[in-house]
Amino acid sequence: MIEILDKGFFTLAVSGERRCLERFGVPSAGPLDRCRCLLANRLVGNPDNAGALEAVMTVPRLRFLDSRSFALTGGPCGPRLLRNGQELPVPMGEAVLAQTGDELTGDLLQAGSRVYLAVSGGIEDASGQPVCPGDRLKLGEGTAPALRRMTADPLALPGQEAVLRVTEGVHAGHFSPEGLAAFYQGPYVCSPQSDRMGIRFSGEAAAFAPGRDGNILSEGMLPGDIQVTSAGQPILMLEACQTVGGYAKIAHVITADLSAAAQLRPGAAVRFRLVSLPEAQAAWRKLWYKMSCCIEDQT
Fold first, then answer.
1. Average pLDDT for 282-293
2. How far apart are CA 62 and CA 53, in angstroms?
């Protein structure tokens, strides 16, 4: 087990295993940055969808109740292991062996907004619920400790200015030429009123075509969809988004850029760049190849 001593700003146990329930109105609610969570699991020899911790803005303080390998990916946070009165620095993107009784701590993230902690064996009850001090999280059966490291980070963390690539939305025709131009010229600022369901943006209103006001008959939604409210402001749907929505969808963030979107901080300026579907598919293949080649066994 691992024991939570301090949950930090906001930490929850997530898993990529809950899929294909959207038709019942149940979102997947997995890690917002699926790529970095997947990499953390691979570093310790877990399946890609194993349960892990997702922490916002700071790593939680926790204690290892048995010997396990663990790895951190995402925003750099100065992680350290406390062992017998000593502080041992923990490298990001590298599996480290923790001994029984070791405590993990860290600082505020220096970039990005989320960090992922994977532990060998995986967190068994990763239902998406926030953790609290005193919680003990059960781990799966750990195999021989995997000690791997990332040779390079295939994903760049976004700064205070970012570009997200998008494909044309199914309701692009609901917007006037001026409204579409405003949307693609930007920039839009990430609002603090954002959460795991979606990122709210503020900026120049994307005007609708004559006779349109942004409202549609509710229909299915997926992470990456960008709805536009009746006030003309975009909302980017994230992993925990509702399964149906009633606002027009102007665009869709490509899969390869959803990790960058998940790492945006409030106040960041974002521009949307239109790409074709073949370009979006090529970008995902390129990213997947990089993730497949960036981990090696430590010698």
1. 96
2. 11
